[in-house]
Amino acid sequence: MFKKILIANRGEIACRVIKSARKMGIKTVAIYSDADRNALHVQMADEAVHIGPPPANQSYIVIENVMKAIKETGAEAVHPGYGFLSENSKFAEALEAAGVAFIGPPKGAIEAMGDKITSKKIAQEANVSTVPGYMGLIEDADEAVKISNEVGYPVMIKASAGGGGKGMRIAWNDEEAREGFQSSKNEAASSFGDDRIFIEKFVTQPRHIEIQVLCDSHGNGIWLNERECSIQRRNQKVVEEAPSPFLDPETRKAMGDQSVALAKAVGYASAGTVEFIVDGDKNFYFLEMNTRLQVEHPVTELITGVDLVEQMIRVANGEELSIKQEDVGINGWSIENRLYAEDPYRGFLPSIGRLSKYRPPEEIAEAGHVVRNDTGVYEGGEISMYYDPMIAKLCTWAPTREEAIEHMRNALDGFEIEGIGHNLPFLSAVMDHPIFMSGDMTTAFIEEQYPDGFDGVELDGSTLRRIAASAAAMHRVAEIRRTQVSGRMDNHERRVGDDWVVTLQGESFPVSIKADHMGSTVVFDDGSEHRVTGDWTPGMSLADMVVDGDPLVLKVGKIPGGFRIRSRGADLKVHVRSPRQAELAALMPEKLPPDTSKMLLCPMPGLVVKVDAAVGDEVQEGQALCTIEAMKMENILRAEKKAVVTKINAGAGDSLAVDDVIMEFE
Question: Is the Cα torsion angle 102, 108, 113, 114 positive or negative in sign?
């Protein structure tokens, strides 16, 4: 077995690989850019080597720099993680020439299947059903428009060497095809060093289901069930689960057998994933093969008990698979939520900055319940603009899908993050959404369910009452503490009243509290009661409450006259007042937000790529005004209505912060 491996990656996947290597008794080497000098993967590894400036094309994807680090440290093998050099055949070739093992597939398999155009041709030759499209290279935007019309809108414009949603656009007309081609080409060049683009038909109402395969160099291959990855935004997966709630055993086996056959046809050896589009009648179409470990691999590990990173290392060491197809079962259900540094209230645009608070829920590994958090950050660390905005992958496992979802809800509610925008509220909303709960979702879930964007969660009446009861009980505890601190009365509890009015989400609930040493019974004015217990004390930012025997996890902050409470995707101002205070508060005027309708504000920190309007221009609704680049993604800002540009405050090359005014209108 290898004694030392180098991880040619960063962030949570580098940390994930280090954990398996450590379990196997293998020493690890991390590489890092200037931006990652204090990163978690650098701290976890046995050694670390600096490889260049922050941009990936000057550090992590510079083969010469990585090879130099390998030579300096004497690493015998390299795990590439995903992204960066993981599907770069030239990197695999350089390792082979240096006598260093690549913990991934052979160079020929990368070339055959890692390139989306080539892989589709091979699949077609093998009589695998594929999505209609144009597999040749496309030279310019005019040709892209012509091909798009021949294929028929809508079309998917994709980077040949792409992955993770980078270099990918959906076009519904000629204008979008032209813009999408150029943006995809630019993103592909900066992210992968390869700007080749192809176009295929965009299948409406699809499900995205993928098969995990594992092959060795001795001709053995198995499939380890499927993952449902249909909930996506900007063509990037957000929620994954294993198994799929849609497949039946016959379809699963057909997809698995076909995936292994395809892998064997190209001499594949390592872990890999064959992705399919599946329609409502369970017809499946080959989409692509990712010749690497997938981001969502933990859900497969949780339902099969197979450590995929360990298996990749063993295959690279020349070992035969110790697992047979008949050994692979489905044990329970697993859900993964990708936690991103992005603001769901601003169209999921990237957010950067310092993690002033980062406290994930406790990891649990019990017989009937697992909570797993794969992460590469820590409290006080920086989220950089140079890399993918992923913070962590939160996973839960339980015997049933319903239980796995419920554990995920509680884990999300207990995940504390401050300092940056993040998608925790959106993930919580998805977990409670009836369509997700039913398992009947497609890749259009986000655009269909949130057509005007995500603007928060409106909680149902039952949940509001549970939170109101908890807030009343917590307020009583806070009031007791306040009277203790004041020292104005020996028997302080007598100064705390029993009658209160709890106001949240536009509703007011008059309540009366009957307290005892075990907790509080909160009685509403309609006679209904909620029994509330918990060990929350003032100053704690997390309240693990139990309401009528069911857990309720609340993130708690102090505001005048009450609490800021975040739970189940909602961000609530909860006021707890005496009846007289509530009566007076109802007479107070409401403060209105400032009018920004005549301004184009920067929605996220980023770099101005270009400005498409000039002072005096009359712009139309939907017209492109400015392009901002952040975290390797180009974002085109458009006019929301017809207007005349009166002032431009930024130009190409300027770095902007959130809400900086780019231009003004009349």
Answer: positive
CA distance 239 to 237: 6
Strands 101-102 and 77-79 come out as parallel
Q: How many residues does the chain have?
A: 666
Local confidence band at 632 (pLDDT 50, 70, 90 cut-offs) = low
- CA atoms of 542 and 193, how far apart (whole Å): 45
Residues 6+ apart with CB under 8 A from 520: 472, 473, 476, 513, 514, 531, 532, 533
Measure the CA–CA gap between 551 and 652, rounded to whole angstroms: 51
Please report how the helices 249-265 and 116-125 are oriented relative to each other, as an axis angle in degrees rounded to 10.
110
Angle between the N-to-C axes of helices 401-413 and 424-432, in degrees from 0 to 180, rounded to the nearest 10: 150
Residue-wise burial string across 362-386, b where 16 or more C-beta atoms lie within 10 A, e elsewhere: eeeeeeebbbbbbbbbeeebbbbbb
Under 8 Å between Cβ of 216 and 319: yes
Beta strands at 4-7 and 27-33: parallel, antiparallel or unpaired: parallel
The confidence score (pLDDT) of residue 133 equals 83
pLDDT digits (tens, 9 = 90+) for 134-159: 878 888 999 999 999 998 898 999 88
- Residues contacting 207, CB < 8 A, separation 6+: 228, 230, 244, 246, 277, 278, 279, 441, 442, 443
Report the amino acid identity of residue 353.
G
- In the set 12, 179, 200, 288, the catalytic residue is 288
Write phi, then psi, for 350 (nearest 5 degrees).
-60, 150
- State the average pLDDT for the chain: 92
For the CA atoms of 536, 537, 539, 545, what is the dihedral angle to 10 degrees?
Answer: 10
Q: Is 416 helix (H, G, I), strand (E, B) or coil?
A: strand
Helix (H, G, I), strand (E, B) or coil at 272: strand
| 51 exposure class (CB count in 10 Å sphere: 0-12, 13-18, 19+) | buried
Q: Is 191 helix (H, G, I), strand (E, B) or coil?
A: helix
Measured CA to CA, the distance from residue 6 to residue 84 in angstroms comes to 14
Hey, what are 70's tokens? 């390998």
Residues 6 or more apart from 453 whose CB is under 8 A from it? 345, 347
**Share in percent of the chain as helix, strand, coil (round to 5):** 30, 35, 35
Cα 389 versus chain centre, distance: 8
Dihedrals phi, psi of 340, to nearest 5 degrees = -115, 150
d(CA 29, CA 430) in angstroms, rounded, equals 38
Q: Which is more confident, 220 or 202?
A: 220
Is 288 considered catalytic here?
yes
Residue 393 has φ and ψ, to the nearest 5°, of -120, 110
Residues ≥6 apart with Cβ < 8 Å to 18: 7, 28, 30, 41, 44, 45
Burial of residue 661 (CB within 10 Å: 0-12, 13-18, 19+) is: middle
β-pair type (606-611, 77-79): unpaired
Q: Is the peptide bond before 154 cis (omega within 30 degrees of 0)?
A: yes
Q: Which residues contact 327 (CB under 8 A, 6 or more apart)?
A: none
pTM: 0.81
Beta bridge partners of 78: 6, 102
